[in-house]
Design a protein that fits this description.
By secondary structure, this protein is of the alpha+beta class. Helix content is 41%, strand content 14%.
Length: 295
């Protein structure tokens, strides 16, 4: 009888220990627990929408007290142009991914699970497929399957916004400083940017055209005056006033002599000398004479 009681006690103890181990195992292997932990640790690039798996080596930026990580330096540069746009975009993407379930058989990039893997969504898709049909494309604003060697900045920058190629700031045509180079018109933010542009015009001209469609347009000839002044009268090409040679401001540009009514008009002339020189010569034969002829 004593042996029977001992056997029962041992059996009861073994059952209790097995139950505790089973509960602990279920907690550890619960896929929902793992999924919740993975979601908390998930960090996405706000520009491309890709998951950042290595935050230590990824480009990062602290904006308004919060640190953002990026897939590459190009994404970081794009974010700096309009931070609020990409912050809102990333927020909308997270909201959409929480309410949309991935359907079996959907095209790649159509759900959160594919993006969370950190792999190229079209790595195994043949050319011509409809990849990037979901949130990854919406988050980046460009094809998520683009060639790694392509320059994202060039793809997204050729738009209708006018960007200064020197400072990178957005401009308005009416207030920007106009520069003519190689028969094309470019715009910069200020006179200092213009001076910097003219130090290396070929480089900045190419950069300007890659940043905006509004840069590098062919220069339009100055409109002809419908009521041209008599050719023997001296006309200021800036103000349009008739002036006397004896009291006019005289200066040389490109080996030719020009006149304006005042120093203020002279300054405006020299900001865009090619345009005003053509206009001056169309108004009067007394403008634009070779300097050697006046000596």
């Amino acid at each position: 009888m004593r042996n029977f009681g001992l056997v029962v006690a041992v059996f009861a103890t073994s059952f209790a220990l097995s139950s505790v181990a089973f509960v602990q195992t279920n907690k550890t292997n619960n896929p929902q627990t793992k999924q919740t932990t993975a979601k908390k640790q998930e960090v996405r690039c706000p520009v491309s929408g890709k998951v950042i798996t290595d935050t230590k080596n990824a480009p990062k930026l602290t904006y308004q007290g919060k640190t953002y990580y990026f897939s590459c330096k190009d994404c970081l540069a794009e974010f700096k142009k309009n931070p609020q746009k990409y912050i809102q975009q990333a927020s909308n993407t997270r909201t959409a991914s929480n309410t949309t379930a991935k359907k079996e058989g959907d095209s790649c990039c159509s759900g959160e699970a594919k993006a969370a893997s950190g792999k190229a969504c079209c790595a195994d898709k043949k050319e011509g497929g409809s990849c990037c049909s979901g949130e990854a494309k919406a988050a980046s604003g460009s094809a998520c399957c683009a060639d790694k060697n392509a320059q994202p900045a060039v793809q997204t920058a050729a738009n209708e916004q006018l960007i200064c190629p020197v400072s990178g700031e957005e401009l308005k045509v009416e207030s920007a400083v106009r520069v003519v180079y190689n028969g094309k018109v470019y715009y910069v933010g200020c006179e200092n940017c213009k001076a910097q542009f003219l130090k290396d015009p070929a480089t900045y001209a190419k950069k300007a055209e890659s940043l905006s469609k509004l840069q590098g347009k062919p220069e339009q000839p100055a409109p002809k005056e419908t009521t041209a002044a008599p050719a023997d009268k001296l006309i200021c090409p800036v103000s349009g006033e008739e002036i006397e040679e004896s009291s006019a401001v005289r200066f040389t540009y490109n080996g030719k002599i020009y006149y304006t009514c005042c120093n203020s008009c002279k300054s405006k002339f020299l900001k865009d000398p090619e345009t005003y020189a053509k206009k001056a010569e169309s108004l009067s034969k007394l403008q634009g004479k070779p300097e050697a002829d006046t000596q």
